[in-house]
Structures are given as C-alpha cells and as structure tokens.
Protein 1
Amino acid sequence: MVPHPPTIIPEIGKGEELKVNSTILAMTKAMMLIAEAQPDTVVIISSHNTMYTDYFHISPGENAYGDFEKFGVKEVSFNVNYDSDFTSNLTKIAKEENLEAGTEGEIDKRLDHGTMVPLYFLRRAYYGKLPCKIVRVGLSGMPFVEHYRLGTLIKKTAEKLKKTVCVIGSGDLSHVLKKDGPYGYKPEGPIYDSRIMDVMERAAFGELLRFSEDFNRRASECGHRSFTIMAGCLDGRSVDARKLSYEGPFGVGYGVCTYLVKGPDLCRRFIAVD
C-alpha cells in the first residue's frame, strides 16, 4: 500500500518533498522489500490507469513508456516490460469466473503517475534497473467486493503460473484534510484516513468491504479500490502487516503499509471463492 504524489519525486518536488520525508523513507523501505523478494512479476494497481464503470482494464502489449512531462520533468522516464503471459492468463481466468476484466478499451498506452511514482522508488531499490516484468491493473465503478474478487484472481493466476509476484496497491487517501489544502476540508476526510490506516495496519481486509461508497466519495479518497484489489491478492493468507508511515501535510493523506505472506490461513478468506 503506497501513495503516488509526484511531489515526492525530488526532481519534481524541488525541496517540497522534504515535507513528506517520512513517506519517502517508507516508500524506500517498501520497495527494498520487493527487490529483496526478487519477484518474477510486479502487479501495480493504480487509480489513474484506464477506468470504466463496469470493467477492469488490464494494460495490454509487451511494453510501455511513461514520463513526468505533465509535471514539468520529462527526463524522469520509464520503459517497462509487461508480463503478457500473466495478463493473458488473468484475463482468461476472469472470463471463466464471470468477472468483467481484460485488455480491451485502452485509452492511453503511456504509464500513469500512479504507476510511475512507485516505479521510481522500485527502480532505485534495484540500483537503477527494473529486472522484473510489470502488470498494470486499473479500477472500476463496480462494488468493492468485485475489486476484492479481482485480487483473488490475480492470486490464482500467480499460483497457476508458479510465479513469484509482488503487488503494489497505489493510491492516496483523503484529499480533504485541510482548509488550506488544494481541495479544502470536509470532516469525512480525517475520519476516513484514521479508519483506513487502522484497517490496513491490522490487515483487517474484510472491513474494506464495509466502507460506504457514499462516505468514501465525501472523503474524496482515491486509493480504496486499489487497496481492496491488493487485499484480495492476500485472501486466505496469514500476513506480517507493518504500518511504515502516515502523514498529510499538504491536505492529502499518504499511507504506506507492507504485507509479507507467512502462509495459508483459511480464517482470512473474506469472501466466498472457489
């Protein structure tokens, strides 16, 4: 679970990133854990990837490029190789399970910033390289339980292919934490952030499904669905959950948590799956 404010990229923040140093340190630690795991594939779930009301978009193709030109820093760029085999199998499994997900309807092939901010820190953890393949997954307007179900299918795909896979749920928390923030203040903002950080710190993933969508809209969060898909990837697994940081000095909440799988735990299956 990581945030994705471009400001934390030093080339973009130009000193402003120092105001969220706890987030930077936590992101660095989280990505080092991924590098140490030496995964075959990293699945990045981003709230800024292509999104449809009734369909989960999974980025197609063999590779993709992206940069931060829209944030004034084109020289910070990425070329990634996709795990097309994983994507193909995930799409097939989703069809078998009657979940609307696949590679159709791509709007923009370029990497979005919700993908690139985590990649920036992951590449640093790999000392300037990205040896693993990437799978990009978008969100949908479907209920939270369908997002969780997609996560269980990502897990099923990894198990079928016998691949070591790490999953990044990329998303910020509430955007309405402060009156002087870019989106102003609403009382639901701090309430959401306190509640989501408590849930994620305890890895109480079943509680993600009990948030009200109307409340989440009022809280102006952007990461809940990303975190819910990520949680589904850990369904039926005992995890070592660690909260690494939380802060929101700019009026937007940033939280970082990590989860290391310890083994199977049938008591941690939060929806009915085959």
Protein 2
Amino acid sequence: MMTMKRILILFTALFAAGSVFAQSEYNLRRRTLFEVLPVLSSDIVFLGNSITDGCEWAELFNNRHIKNRGISGDRSGWLLERLDPIIEGHPKKLFLMIGINDLISGASPDEVLANIGRLIDRFQAESRWTKIYVQSILPVNGDLPGYERRKACAPLIVPTNKRLEALCDEKGVTYLDVWGALADENGNLDKRYTLDGLHLKGEGYLVWRDVIKPHVMVLYQIDYKWDSIQNVLAYSAKRFFFCFIPMMWFYALSNHWARMLFGRLDSFLLLEEK
C-alpha cells in the first residue's frame, strides 16, 4: 500500500514537472519567434500573457499595425527578460496586461507592481516616444467547476489594480480599467465571457475591445507631452507631403494650362479681328 502511494506521489510530481517544462518550452519558442519578427515605429504592441496571446488583435481592430506579443503562462518577471526586441522597434503604442499568473502562483502584489514599474522605466528611458497604456488585471471566477483554486487570488486583484492605477499616475502613463467591464455584480469574471474562469471567450474580447478602442484608434492626442507632440508633427508632415504638396502642384499645373489656353484664345481672336 505504501509502495503504491509513493508511486502515485512520484507520478504526480513528474506530471507537474512535465507541465512546467511544456509551458517553458512554449514560452521559449514564442520568445525566439518574437526576436526575429520586427516591431516598427508605426506599430501598436499588445504585451502580456495567455489572455493577450489568445486574441487576434489586428483582426479585432482591423488594423495591420497591431502586433500581438502575448505569451501564454507569462509572468511579470519573465516578461522583463524579453523586452529588447520591442523597445528596439520604438513602437507607437504599448498596451500592457500582466500579473494574474503571478498572483495565482503565489507572488505578492508588491512583486507584480515592482516589475511593471521596471518595465515602464525601461520604455521611458529607451523608447520615450512610445505611448504606454497599462490595463487592469482582469477578474477571475473560481465558482466554475474544476477551477476553484483561482478563488485564492481573487481578493488580491482589486487592491492590486488600485495600486497599479496609482503607479501609472506616478509614472505619467495611462491606466485603463478593463476589470469593471468584465466583472459581474459579485466582482467575479462574468460567466458570459469565460469557459474556465480565467481566459476569455470571443464575447469577452469584444467587451475588452470596446473599452480600449478610443485609445487604440485615435490618430494623435494633443496633451502637451513630447510623445504627443511628436505624433502631431509626424501626422502633420504626412498631410503636408501627401496632401498639400500634390494639391499645390496640381494648382500650379492647372494655372499654367489655363494661361496657355487663354493666351492661344486671345491670339486667335486678334487674328480674327485683323
């Protein structure tokens, strides 16, 4: 009996280790992919864990400049290790959502906030034109059968989000509350939007999209910050080169043709009078 018990314990441990390895392998494969895929200054990057990874953001917003850099199972500390390819591309905007895997695994809110603060600091130091949007940690639902263990981290989410909002104010970046749009009256992830109490169904992503859409789709914002001024100047330059200059060229050419036409007409009338 004791031998059978030991075998079961060993089997459980090996299964858990295999799951961790598989997750790490997926994380590594995605990292290597993102290292060779370019990020451009015109891009909008969505960065996070499986909740970000699970959406086709470019299709959802019908915007080919959106790049998905979510990795399933990612945590805030691991995310810090894969920022280089994104920062080096100096994307136009960054939409970040991270932290729920940290809390589920037993990490403290202090650790999550410290890592997010380091991420913001890196972007502000090395890619200061990037507009940063930090999204709230989403609610979970531990009432669904088979997913009760998520109840343990549920009470931490709202306090962590409040501190996250304060951190964004301190760092001068934009905080977006997506939690409120997806939570039910009890503060759980609404069952209409999930199958497992953590990840979103299609309807949930539509709700998320509607919350952040004004920030994703806006052409530029005038808020007297250097990043916004740069966006305004870039947009104005595009309008100048692609709208104003062709219009002026067309006006000058049309004026030239009109002068030639009227000149010939005037010459013809003078000949008729003679």
